[in-house]
């Protein structure tokens, strides 16, 4: 079900934002948590420690986000990659934090590095980008400081530094990808803040969807791989509940393809999940605001997805 919503506080109805409105929006954003503390320090500690990861992986700085001209900071971008890259192994790409506010995507990727990377690197070249959008992580935002959505910006001449840096790394390090799992969340703030803000920015009328209560997947319309999606849903159902379709047979306004799965045209929309030509592609959507799911369950759902995806690819 969709419903028309009240007007957003910034902008004039029917008019797309100009630089003044974007500057006003940016002035209202506040740092609420630390990328250094939550992401960089755990990565650095992991690679400084005598752990099983240090023997099989390397920590790569693949770029720097510099927003000093906006009065903001500089953010180093890191990925973790197999240190013995082999041409005869399939490559798996795991991405998190494209939308920085989607917390379990970041922490699920970190959990995979910590707990499962060593086991799966025997079978795959692994490339993990745990937090593609660090400023958005710190401010709990969907957009970057320029009011650009990185997850609509995985395109040529990208307007997003975050997307451009990730695409450049993947093109250079992993031009042939078998599997890509992109870790996301759907939250109540999608309806209370982010969709209204997007409509105001673009000068259009906002309509909200019902927020699904539970986990679901977004496959690729042009490459749906239903058996792959089904295997992941079965695995995740053991650790958290799967979202039911609404009264129209939809999740987030899209017709259900199978239990817990909808499809989007990933390349056409400029989504992170469309940046490669991987055979197996999925995007997770965890619901952290559910009274039936804890933060630990959300992180575990992300980790379970990655492992189930890798297991499926191994079995083929």
What is the structure about, briefly put?
With 316 residues, this protein is α/β, with parallel strands linked by helices. It is 33% helix and 19% strand. It has a single domain, classed as Aminopeptidase (3-Layer(aba) Sandwich).
Keywords:
alpha/beta; 8-stranded mixed beta sheet; Aminopeptidase; 316 residues; 19% strand; two-stranded antiparallel sheet; globular; single chain
Q: Which sequence of SSEs, written as H and E, runs from N to C? A: EHHEEEHHEHHEHEEHEEEEH
If you compute it from the alpha carbons, what radius of gyration comes out, rounded to the nearest whole angstrom?
19 Å
Strand content: 15-25%
Q: Which geometry do the CA atoms define? A: globular
Query: What class would the helix/strand composition place it in?
Result: alpha/beta
Determine the fraction of residues in helical runs and give it as a percent range: 25-40%
What's the overall average pLDDT, rounded?
96
CATH class annotation? Alpha Beta
CATH topology: the name is Aminopeptidase
Biggest beta-sheet profile: 8 strands, mixed
The CATH architecture category equals 3-Layer(aba) Sandwich
CATH 4th-level superfamily: Zn peptidases
Number of helices: 9
Question: Can you count the beta strands?
Answer: 12
Tell me the strand order in the biggest sheet. 2-3-5-4-6-12-8-11
Q: Poorly predicted ranges (pLDDT <50, ≥5 residues)?
A: none
């Amino acid at each position: 079900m969709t419903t028309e919503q009240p007007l957003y506080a910034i902008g004039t109805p029917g008019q797309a934002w100009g630089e003044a409105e974007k500057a006003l929006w940016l002035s209202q954003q506040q740092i609420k948590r630390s990328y250094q503390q939550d992401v960089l320090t755990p990565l650095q500690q992991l690679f400084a420690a005598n752990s099983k990861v240090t023997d099989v992986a390397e920590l790569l700085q693949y770029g720097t986000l510099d927003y000093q001209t906006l009065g903001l900071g500089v953010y180093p971008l890191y990925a973790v990659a197999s240190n013995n890259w082999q041409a005869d192994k399939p490559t798996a790409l795991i991405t998190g934090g494209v939308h920085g506010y989607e917390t379990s995507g970041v922490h699920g990727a970190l959990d995979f590095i910590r707990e499962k990377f060593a086991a799966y690197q025997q079978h795959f070249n692994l490339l993990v980008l745990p937090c593609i959008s660090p400023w958005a992580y710190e401010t709990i935002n969907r957009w970057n400081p320029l009011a650009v959505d990185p997850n609509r910006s995985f395109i040529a001449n990208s307007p997003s530094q975050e997307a451009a840096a990730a695409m450049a790394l993947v093109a250079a390090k992993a031009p042939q990808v078998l599997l890509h799992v992109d870790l996301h969340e759907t939250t109540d703030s999608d309806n209370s803040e982010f969709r209204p803000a997007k409509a105001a920015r673009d000068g259009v009328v906002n309509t909200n969807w019902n927020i699904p209560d539970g986990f679901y997947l977004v496959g690729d319309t042009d490459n749906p791989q239903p058996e792959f999606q089904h295997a992941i849903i079965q695995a995740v159902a053991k650790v958290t509940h799967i979202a039911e379709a609404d009264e129209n047979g939809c999740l987030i306004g899209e017709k259900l393809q199978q239990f817990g799965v909808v499809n989007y045209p990933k390349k056409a929309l400029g989504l992170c999940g469309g940046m490669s030509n991987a055979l197996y592609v999925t995007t997770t959507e965890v619901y952290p605001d559910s009274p039936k799911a804890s933060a630990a369950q959300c992180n575990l759902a992300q980790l379970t997805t990655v492992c189930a995806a890798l297991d499926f690819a191994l079995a083929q």
